[in-house]
Amino acid sequence: MITFKSKAAQDLDVLKDFAVYVLGLVGKQLGERGVITFDELDGAIAKLEDAVNQAKQARAEHAGHFHEDEPDHAHHEVPPSLAQRVAPFLVMLREAKAQNADIHWGF
């Protein structure tokens, strides 16, 4: 587990694989310790929102390929969207920006 912390928001605990993924989306790497500074928040938010929008578009294009109405189509669960998975992290980024705070992990 990795815990993201900010004086502006509640701690956010995520699985290590997710932390690596979401930090990669915002141009960071998961190290033993790290920080997203206040000055980096606008860029991080924009990159994350862009990734969410691209994922939504790809998901919408793929949605037309499902054949759930066909009788021989096997039912399957639709996995959570990127927007759903990153929402708590995006909230944390926005709260940190609103309060001129950094986000850090590993401290």
Could you give a short description of this structure?
This protein is α+β, with helices and mostly antiparallel strands and 107 residues long. It has one domain.
Could you characterize what this model shows?
This is DUF1840 domain-containing protein. Residues 58-78 are annotated as: Disordered. InterPro entries: DUF1840. This protein is α+β, with helices and mostly antiparallel strands. The chain is built from 3 helices and 4 strands. The protein has one domain. Helices cover 47% and strands 16% of the residues. The chain has a 4-stranded antiparallel sheet with strand order 2-1-4-3. A hairpin with a 2-residue loop joins strand 1 and strand 2. The two termini are 13 Å apart.
Instruction: Give the assembly state of these chains.
Output: single chain
Q: Termini separation (Å)?
A: 13 Å
Helix tally equals: 3
Low-confidence stretches: none
| Share of β-strand residues | 15-25%
Judging from the principal axes of the Cα atoms, what is the shape?
A: elongated
Which whole number gives the mean pLDDT?
A: 88
Radius of gyration: 17 Å
Number of domains: 1
Region (Disordered): 58-78
Protein name: DUF1840 domain-containing protein
Organism: Burkholderia humptydooensis MSMB43
Pfam family, one: DUF1840
